[in-house]
Amino acid sequence: MAYKITLIPGDGIGPEVADATVRVLEATGVAIDWEKTELSASIIEKSGTSLPPHVLESIERTGVALKGPVTTPIAGGFKSVNVAIRKQLDLFANVRPVFTLPGLKTRFQDVNIDMVIFRENTEDLYSGLEHEVVKDVVESLKIITRYASIRIARYAFEYAKKNGRRKITAVHKANIMKLSDGLFIRCCREIATEYPEIAYNELIVDNASMQLVMRPETFDVLLLPNLYGDIVSDLAAGLVGGLGVVPGANMGENHAVFEAVHGSAPDIAGHGIANPTALMSSSILMLRHLGEGLAADRLQKALALTFREGTHLTRDLGGSCGTKEFTDAVIKNLV
Ligand code: NAI
Hints:
By secondary structure, the protein is an alpha/beta fold.
């Protein structure tokens, strides 16, 4: 029986990296019946809602989606569709594994980086509660609840336990935001006591950012509220080759949406040069979620081999190949 999965190519480079990922998934032999769902900035503008019902209905039906990026207007316009999907489907855990790719030349190529970032995905400053108090004075509400903080902390500790991870670092700014980040960190401490086998420490977000650049190999699992998680995961992506290589998953109780960390990259869209590694790696997380561990391992190895060979890399990684040549090389290594 084929898996029924929602495919949202998105816009910008989304359709290019989504096509490439569908091709490698086909090559793994896992039978997938894609429910293709169009979503782009122009569709959202026309529909008048940041989450058109056909998208939500499809993910509710299939339970699993592979999603490309969608452009969000800056400082005005419609609200982020990504935030809307995460909130509507209660995808409370954003999971981003960040690891050194074999053979890839980066500033940190001699360091073995292997961390997983857990970002609370539904509240904090992403609650979208902003208003103008009086002219030229605006207020954004940072919402932190015990419910959501306990839930993400437990999710991260459970993951660490199941996957043999040894240390969790909670990241906060509770020295300044004593109430909101204070609540988050108290919830992390509470859950940490239930997992004595996993080491637990805390870092203030500014110090954590510096430590990540100075000593990235010392980090194992990071646990953060929404905004710090968003920023720190791009920083971490920069340690291992950039946004083109880091995967992501948005996990809820009943639904899962797998998507790359990167956005729609309008600067390179339509040129056939986007790096599809990030969405391909996100699809490996999806295969594991589906219970297709063997196919996931095979695709992971094929990607690793393609990086080790280093002959078909895209331009963002210092290569000269396009999306198609890179994808062909991964498929060749898969076979
Ligand atoms: P971006 O991630 O689209 O691009 C940042 C830089 O990284 C650009 O120079 C781009 O060319 C490069 N880059 C990103 N992905 C790449 C890939 N796969 N291969 C090669 N190079 C790649 O971030 P930016 O420019 O801040 O955002 C553009 C749009 O994307 C915005 O509208 C933003 O809101 C949206 N966005 C959407 C996301 C989503 O749908 N999940 C996530 C992040 C941003």
